Amino acid sequence: MSGVEATLQMPERTPMDPSKEAAASKLWAVYVSEAEKYDKSLVESWKSDMEGMLIFAGLFSASLTAFLIESYKTLVPDSGDSTVQILTQISQQLAAAANGSTFEPPAPIHFTPSTSSFICNALWFLSLGLSLTCALIATLVEQWARDFLHKADMRSSPFIRARIFSYLYYGLKRFKMHTVVDIIPLLLHTSLFLFLAGLVAFLLPINISIATVAAVLSAVMVAAYTLLTMLPVWFLNCPYRTPLSTAFWGISQTFASIWLRTPFQDSESQADPSSKSTMVEAMSQRATEKSAGRFLRDYRALEWTVKSLADDTEFEPFVEGLPDVLWGPVYRRYGYEDYIHKLMRNPDLRLQHRIESLLRSCDSGLLSLEATKRRRITCYKALWAIAGVQPRPGFSDDQSLDFTLLCDFLLLHKPGLEVLHYSVSALAHLRWSTFRSMKSYLATLVEYLVQCKAEAEAGHTPNLKRVAAYLRSSSLDLFPASSRLRNYLSKITAASPPLSLIILELIQAIEEFGITTPYQILFQYFEDSAQLQSEPYRWDSTLNVISIPNPADYSAFGNMLEAGLGRVVNRCHFSDSSEVVTNFNDIVVDTFCRYWRPDEPVPIPHGIITYLNNRNAVVLNQLLCTERIGLLLWSSFPITLSHGPSSPQAPHSILLDEVKTALWSLARITPTLPTSVIRYSPAIYEPVLAAVEAFSNTSPVIFSLNCMLKSRLVDSLLCGSDSSSRGRVPPLRHPSLPTATAIVVPPEFLEAQVVDSPESGFLEEPVDPFHRVLQCRIIEAKIGLVAEFLDGIRPDFIPYRAGETLRYLCDNIPTPRSEIHETHQTRFASGIRRVFESGKPDNMNLLDTIIKSEIFEPYFDAGLYQVAPDVPVNSHSGYAWLQDLSACSRIQEMLEKYSKALISPDAPSVPARIQAILAGLELLQTTVDTVGVK
């Protein structure tokens, strides 16, 4: 038993589980379906062959029998010859009697058939026997074929039928049924050649000339048969074969395995005897292996297919299959790229024109609405796929296709909303391919213009007709950047001096056209996509195709970007309640904004300002502040506050208000406490804060901005040293930190710089004493900023979006675990009390924000231990940073009143957090009194 058979042996004592067999019915049904098609096709081909064999064998046997009726007589004595011999003897006897002489009768002659007669009859009788044997076996094969199909179809259960199919098929292979079927025509062919050989032997004693003709005819047939036998051995795609071809092919493979090469081989590839077991398998491998011959065959097949598709109904399925051939679910498929490009460039096929005609047929009114929609989508997807196949790196742009006519048609015939998702992406690819096809010609045109310029400088008049003809071409009409090129048409036609200067300007205009047009195509795609409610067809793949690998200077396309971005943002409908990027408009704007990369700070485009004002912090953090654009925004806000945004569409005062609120939106994005968030050095925030402080602090927006920017600036002091922070004021001497402090700072720390660290931000355990002191100073400064913000809230003055601003300030404060100067304590307590006494509902929300922050976390932690009086006070996790008795009392009083105000029928008890904070204040304050610390 072979290793495979041993591996596949059924384990002993494995019970048959009917439920498992039934569960596998669908699996076996697939096998039955495929096996039934194969077996029926095989058996039907056998039956058809046998019917032909029976007809031929019958006709041949009848003809051969007629010849045998005449030829077998030459094997026995002829009665006529015997009669002539007897009469001759009688005549001789009578003559002797008349003469009186004695007559001696001759001895009887023994009959022996001639050699030619023997050979002829032997060959013909053998031929007849083989022919009848062939007919018998053919009849049996037909019976066996019918019996095979009958046995396979006896049962209805899929898994039983599958096993019967398998059992019977491998029985066919075991008993060499295929060989038996191949022997039948071999017997019949042998019978025919025996007949021809016997015919020559039959005619030889009769007439040499006729026998010679028969021999030549037989030789020709044998030679033709030999050639038909060997041709498939030499060329596997030869349609001719005989039953002996397979045998000779096997012999040739045996010799090839010995001599390591095949003596008769196709010119397309080398044979590999070890990889093929049958002639059919060798043919299949030869047909599918990669070669120049296969490429030519495939292309001819596709070319014939396109030519044979006469009407739109037949042509539509072919067009529908193009996207799957060229593109996978994510990436391009390169196998058929060359075929499609060659088909598109074949002038006899006019494939582009036919796709356009198919698209135009949607407006004929002869199709139903569903069929019209399906055909439009089919055409747009096909055009997207074909135009998206751009030359790979290293290949010339000449391989790109020119779709000028199709672009003109799509621009004039705007599709409905149901197919707009497809047309937007298709048009972007068509424009991009058309531009790529123009690039090589533009480069050649520039070279020609350089020569013309040299001729003009030499005093000659260059021939500019070729240039003028191209400037009139319709391809340029697709791109707005071509308008500048059109302006030179009249100048070069008039050929007015100085012509060399005009040619130089035209060269510069062509080079600028080559730089700006890709951005125009890309930005137009963004604008077209912004009007959709969801992604256009294959959004990511389209962006990969029309991406610009080597970005130009921002000055080359900055105006185009700012204008396009403004139009996109104006078309968008934003919802500030969205907590994730679910709106496709956000994706479009985010992708658009990534191309805003000026080399130096410039006024921020009005479109970005509008976007910042209409999205919430979560979405803006995901879209804008994860890459270089965040740094660009912070660096550009000072000049934007001074000069207003670019592309103004409203009075300067209104735009300036939008800039302030946009800066507030940017400042509130994700607190910088998590180390995973991008952090900037103080050099980024200082100019922004200085620009904001130049405005009057009486403005609600400016007041909120001041507090938030100071908070960010204080946080940035923890950043490591970099090129922008070297040589600046040491962190502990930075003016943003409070001058009066309760923290004792060692003198050696005052001039120290922050060193690079793998971790930036607030640490549970600072890596060194300097960081510990710096963190304490920063926490103190941030609590002071909260106190400053609360101190600014008055009945007649409410800061801009006070709740969110205070939440940002509080969320950025870690748990205080060090001294806080009494100035901040007093100011903090007064601010909380003033907010509470105002009685406004919005101010109550501000109090709730402060109570839930980590500012009161030490007292909350301490209050939780009231239930465990045996725990020593010094083991509490709380720290009494409110050491000013007056400030602490005012806060306690305010919290008690606030807790009573919260009691209602729906909430009859004081919130647990306020109870714990009050308990912690009482406990830690007692500790402060005990140790004698003010």
From TrEMBL:
Which keywords label this protein?
A: Membrane, Transmembrane, Transmembrane helix
Asked whether the keyword Acetylation is assigned, the reply is: no
Q: Which domain of life is it from?
A: Eukaryota
* TM helices/strands, residue ranges: 122-141, 183-204, 210-236
Q: Does the keyword Membrane apply?
A: yes
- Classification via InterPro entries: DUF6535 (IPR045338)
N-terminal signal peptide: none
DUF6535 domain mapped to chain residues = 28-204
Protein name per its UniProtKB record: DUF6535 domain-containing protein
Give the organism the record lists.
Mycena venus
